[in-house]
Give the backbone structure.
Amino acid sequence: MVRRISLFVLLSTLPVLLTTHGESWSQSRIESVVTGSRATLPSSDTSAQELTLGQTVRGELAGGDVTSYVIRLQRDQFLFARVIQLGVDLVVTTLHPSGHVLAETDLLTDGPEFISLTSDTTGVYQIDLRPFDPLASRGSYLFQVLKQPAAAQTLPGKVDQLFAELDETWMPGAVVVVLKDGEIVHTNAFGMADLEGKVPLTTTTPINICSIGKQLTAFAIALLADRQQLGLDDDIRDHLPWVPDFGHPITIRHLVHHTSGLREMDDLWSLADRTGVPLPRSDVLWYVQHQQELNFPPGERYLYCNTGYILLGEIIEAVTGSPFIEWMHANVLDPLGMHDTHFYHDVEALPDGFAWSYRLGPNGGIQRYEMFPAWYVAAGNVFTTAEDLERWLLHLEDPSICSHRLIEQMAQGGKLNNGESTSYAFGQDRQTYRGQSVLEHGGGGWGYRSYIMRFPEHRFATIVVSNFVYGKAFTRARQITDLYLSAHLKDAKPDDEYVNRRRAIAIDPDLLDTYAGTYQQSSGATATVTRQGSQLLAQIAGLDRLTLYPDSASSFFIKEADLRVVFDIEGREHAVRLTVLSPADTVTYTRNGGARTDGPDLADYVGRYVSEELDVQHVILLENKRIWVRSPSGARAPCTHVHGDLFRNPYSTMEFDRDERSRVVGYRVSCERSRNIRFHRQ
């Protein structure tokens, strides 16, 4: 799904560098993954070096360098290789014998980049390596050719080759299920469920499908409505009278379609300093019970909200008189034969052999996520197997425990108060993929990633679930769709979810000083641009500093997001303005001439603040001419002044309130899915 989001949301949700300690792609790590071959240095000849199966080469590159390798392939031959980056961020470009680019890969800044392709002609295929930053310092890499079998000739075989990088004993893995014409045509598993225990992932391994589990909850609500045990337009307080009266009725339909206006539980946990701490059901319900306002009136807009689906689970329990999990097994899972599906709330309650999830550390090493007890029941965190997912897809295609009409109802989106339709239906999002209508949904939590795509008009569906944060479930689900529905798809294939199409260039370093300075909007919001060696860094609207890469003499981009910064010189010695362009916004800042703008007295904000909505106390400190917010755990976040009494930290905005004598009396915190959570000064 492609959504246009605001500049603030785009900037504030950039990937955060992991700071946990993991295994490095060190010399010892390199030697442990090189098997059956002796590493050799690249030839000193300027022509491309030819590589063969099982060969490993080492090399070094600095900004501006390009090294080429060639591999001879027969027609319909599959190639799988990897480049391990050691201190230099590389772009890997694969070229067809005719010279056109087949793929360009730049997923990670360190660790492995993977190359996979299927040849369509006999010939010499070229692979170019170059540093992403044309001014990068010299770093080394390791190139390995791992697999070179004949290309698969069947659709299931081609699907399996899409997972080549995960089909290893040293990698986390994935499962895939494909349905076509009412039948399961392919199911498989790849990689490892437990790297530490050396346990492979299989089609009977429980793995977390995350928010795809909302489909189970939404189906249960539709089923109860069909049985007339509840109404979709019921006020939720009819079933859950302990939910606060916000002055506007919230209906079950609002919860289903994410139009309730409720604050996001993930944000509440985080702001209450509960991240990584056991969170029992009683605490989750306490947070709901103590909220004093909504993000917006119910039905006013769409905003994805896990809190709403947690409450749907509570409504199911209140209506049926049975615990949610027991009722779901008795009325949905067991009748469908989904006996190996579990609602996670504590790792101790999971069956033996479930798939752990994994991420990359700051140096490319693979680390396991440690899970903690959390009541996320009904909103996601559903552990199930590939074989049970087969049963779920078959149920959506040809239901046995409900009518076809109910399944069709689940595909209907909601409506806003102004009459506009929303794309989000019952745990499914109505979208278009390459000219075809699709019902889809993704999921992510810890290192699990999942994606489902259903094309009812073509009786086709696929689910991909991975226990690796870079398992590319979204991309692979699309690639599988491309294979099976090739005769029906019209538009060009979209980019891989991690591909960066921009290319950094080297520019005159003296230009960087031309752009450095402080720029300001009429609202008072600032953008500060500084030079650090051969790079420009920008701090925009109070957020963390970001590296700017030039793609022309006056235009720069941010690698981690679809964001560009354009400078306007107008023939002067220094740039007079900069414009920040995102898919949704264009924001212009004007140079303030280097004059320092008057800011507030930061000492005004120092003190202790308490939130009754979160039952937490934050402390505002002043250190080194900057205010910091400290949580009960001792964690501290720097706050940058935007304008007036508005500040931003890496996670939220904080707008301070003053009384009639201009004394600071509190502040309101806002995140992407939770607005105006109040803290009062003690």
